[in-house]
Design brief:
single chain; Purple Acid Phosphatase, chain A, domain 2; 6-stranded mixed beta sheet; 22 strands; 25% helix; globular; Serine/threonine-protein phosphatase
Amino acid sequence: MGNSTSKQPKGKEGALPRSDTMTSTRSVRSFRSRRSLSKDSSQHLNDAGSFKPSQSFDNRSRKSSFRNDIKPTITPIMGASTDRLSGEFGSLSVGDDYNLQLPPSMIQMEPRQPILKQQDITNGVSNTSPEQHSGFNNTGLSSYTSSPSSPINTPHLTVTQGSSTSLTALSHSNNNNSSGANTPKSSHSNINSPANSDSVSTMSTSVPKTTLMTSRGVVINIEDIIQRLLDAGYSGKRTKNICLKTSEISVICSKARELFLSQPPLLELSPPVKIVGDIHGQFGDLIRMFTKCGFPPASNYLFLGDYVDRGKQSLETILLLLCYKIKYPENFFLLRGNHECANVTKAYGFYDECKRRANLKTWKMFVDTFNTLPITAVIASKIFCVHGGLSPMLNSMDDIKRIQRPTDVPEFGLLNDLLWSDPADTSNEWVDNERGVSYCFNKIAINKFLNKFQFDLVVRAHMVVEDGYEFFNNRSLVTVFSAPNYCGEFDNWGAVMSVSDELLCSFELLDPLDSVALKQVMKKGKTERRNATLQSQGPNSSVSNGASSIT
């Protein structure tokens, strides 16, 4: 069967061959969503409804935005007992009574144990220590071929070491003999460095902070940048320019590329972990999600891609995620989506945002970073995670491990399918996708895939669903979508899938909010964040000009 990329979309403008609009059915908007659209944004979002929603999105009766009938679903995996679900914040580090008054997501945390399977890379061969991760079976998932990286003009990075940290440094086993002069594979060997006194910080002073320095003399503090990005998000204002300098963005992208290439294209993770679907530049909703589910390192995270395009704050969204990746490299993971691609970002907004709010050099730096992102993840050898779906060319997990990075997304083939394919209720296992790219696969293809690789569940994103998550094929595949009130066009909820130590799956939901309601939530969150800082510091904190100054 020929790949459907040979199809060219119809239109006077000659749209790009890789398009995720095509002939998809448009969802009916609710009256509330209609009213929430402003006149200046309606033209910008005139094609937002042409996303491919789930087939049942339009057909079933729509529920009210204020419905209370949706409750988190707990789904057992591997036949695990449903009476054992670990506490959401069972590993909280509460140092004093002040923390007991804080919202759960703002309680001070120390970094969790790494969930990435440790690997030693020697001559392209991965050797795993079984005593470190006994939860993985011998199914061939423990090795991969290291991909040679092409030159990216990355400035040399160093991590300056501090002496006042109270945590044991965590690093990859192949860096145990490093002197610290070069950048380690893991930046858990972070330092304490002074934060900007004007920014509000909710992190404990015992949590290490990372300072990155390039050979060109640019020094940045990751914790400070995270706080600046959060401050921008809580302000509820969309500024003309990004709050970071181009030099700072360059260092962040360089370090992120280094980290992505140091980890395999197929990540092997241990639970617990929270799985997040498409974000699409909805920065305020990303902060809402962290507030509900826990800011890193309160929870381990796996994002399934599509961080940019469509939304109005793609720059803040991808920068915050990259900063968390740098700060917690073995507990925070980002997979590649179909929108993490140069051609797609040119068509759906990120290119224009970079040109308008920063410069084209910034866009090129992000594209270079996108080309190094990992492709898939496997949790406890039982849950397969990917942005799009399956591929008829996937014969072995080694096929994914052999994908060389950096790489653009090809017009067809394995990588294209993993990022673009969709499940569908069709009679044939593989049919051309109505998006004009890749395939649709049916229940038979899913069952064959699960049986061949001994997986129990496929978790993917790539498709807007009304309730934020939707099961398919007797709960053997689930779509997770995490951008509520998508583009102001869909009245959908957002969802985050939580996988417990026992491999029980539950869902935390974000209700759809229009721009006015979202600003109110951000304002309330800003106040809570300031109070959280004051409470965590006790009587030794003071307030100046509406911000918390830590003494």
